[in-house]
Design goal:
about 220 residues, alpha+beta, Archaeosine Trna-guanine Transglycosylase, Chain: A, domain 4, five-stranded mixed barrel, 5 helices, 7 strands, about 40% helix, about 25% strand, globular
Length: about 220
């Protein structure tokens, strides 16, 4: 176990995924500056109770993801735009409120991974649903471009990218982050994608019918 500065947000960060943050509050300017100077990560945790900005420190969910800062853009008054990349999952064992920001005593919690053939098969079953989802999404959203070749081959990388891309509430994404096993994670994400593909396809079909109706003689 080790101590990790925590950044409670209204978003879920998954391993290997990027996150852009605008740092403007004094407590988080201090926290991020220390992380930069020491070349150390911070932890992104979904807010369970409370708010992101101002006021008392928010109460976080117990499972989060470490974030390593990769780019920094310094602005006026000590503000920063940073790019960080998700590292490893952790579980908060205790919270320390002695700093202006939250500090957690945390333990890394890697996913239980089955044999390679099992996880490879789960990844192969998920991939076509991600492709369908992004293909349908490109039909209903502007400025969405999709290249299937850009999807990662590694099953876990695919799972975390798929979880990030899904347009679902943050509490559902938190459930995905907190999954115990890789196979269960891939299976659950595939089920969510089947549901979302059906919903998006229904929207596309409805919009197509509405457009055709504009030109109907009836």
């Amino acid at each position: 176990m080790f101590e990790l500065p925590l950044f409670p947000l209204n978003t879920v960060l998954f391993p290997g995924m990027p996150i852009n943050l605008h740092i403007f509050e004094p407590r988080y300017k201090l926290m991020i500056e220390q992380c930069i100077q020491n070349d150390e990560p911070f932890g992104v945790v979904l807010i369970h109770k409370g708010t992101e900005a101002s006021g008392p420190l928010a109460e976080p969910h117990p499972i989060g993801c470490t974030a390593q800062i990769t780019q920094v853009e310094r602005l006026d008054d000590g503000r920063m735009n940073i790019l960080a990349v998700g590292g490893e999952r952790f579980q908060i064992r205790s919270l320390n409120h002695t700093e202006p920001y939250l500090v957690g005593t945390v333990e890394l919690v890697p996913l239980d991974e089955p044999s390679e053939p099992v996880i490879e098969q789960a990844g192969h079953r998920l991939r076509p649903w991600v492709e369908r989802y992004l293909g349908v999404l490109a039909q209903v959203a502007e400025n969405v471009e999709f290249d299937p070749a850009g999807l990662p081959d590694d099953p876990l990388a695919l799972a975390y990218l798929a979880a990030t891309l899904l347009q679902i509430p943050s509490d559902q994404k938190q459930t995905l982050l907190a999954a115990d096993g890789a196979a269960d994670l891939l299976t659950t994400i595939r089920s969510l994608y089947r549901r979302e593909v059906a919903l998006l396809s229904a929207i596309v079909a409805r919009d197509t019918m509405d457009t055709q109706g504009l030109f109907s003689l009836n």
